[in-house]
């Protein structure tokens, strides 16, 4: 066997391995559920701003009106003013419809970390609405179960939000759990961002746990 034949065999083998990686990735991506009206669930969020913590628990049911219900605020039954503030600040447009937009169009296999396949990508669309903010992404795939384990979105350049306001650091992380063999759902969502607003610096973090998913008829 000459060197050219050996090189050809190595190329064919590597293409086969790459194709196998992509097949498993496509299967795993197909399991991610985007339809927010498919489930009811509970959501606990801890927001940290300048060492001040704010913890809330929300129940989401697409068949209810309103769909989101604030049931606990810092461990207590929320007051009327806290409920009004919650609905004033809530974005009820749907977590999963936005989630689909921050996935990639193409994925590049990088390496294997602790048994998980690591891929890198660029988000399909802008992460921050109406701002040029497509970001970098990393995705960890469990090849045995053909499921997504974790996704990390992060910026590489600062983003001008508006006059005098810039975002220097932005990270958004998801971890996933199997609802069934065909469906994977988000079980944790963590976000951190920091920057400057005129002469003031801001630094905020939120950690969300999503659980008790129930599929609706």
What would your notes on this structure say?
The chain has 217 residues and is α+β, with helices and mostly antiparallel strands. It has one domain (3-212). It contains 3 helices and 11 strands, in the order H-E-E-E-H-H-E-E-E-E-E-E-E-E. It has helices at residues 3-30, 80-89, 95-101, and strands at 39-49, 52-60, 68-73, 108-113, 116-122, 136-142, 147-154, 159-162, 165-178, 184-197, 200-215. Strands 1, 2, 3, 4, 5, 6, 7, 8, 9, 10 and 11 form an 11-stranded antiparallel beta sheet that branches. A hairpin with a 2-residue loop joins strand 4 (108-113) and strand 5 (116-122). The longest helix is centred in the N-terminal third of the chain and has 28 residues, at 3-30. The termini are far apart. The relative contact order is 0.16.
Itemize the secondary structure elements and their pairings.
Elements: H1 3-30, E1 39-49, E2 52-60, E3 68-73, H2 80-89, H3 95-101, E4 108-113, E5 116-122, E6 136-142, E7 147-154, E8 159-162, E9 165-178, E10 184-197, E11 200-215
Class inferred from helices and paired strands = alpha+beta
Distance between the termini: 62 Å
Outline the biggest β-sheet. Answer: 11 strands, antiparallel
Give the proportion of residues in helices: 10-25%
User: Any idea what the shape is?
Assistant: globular
What's the Cα radius of gyration? 21 Å
Low-confidence segments, given as residue ranges, are 1-19, 92-97
Q: What percent strand?
A: over 45%
Number of strands: 11
H/E series, N to C?
Answer: HEEEHHEEEEEEEE
Mean pLDDT: 83
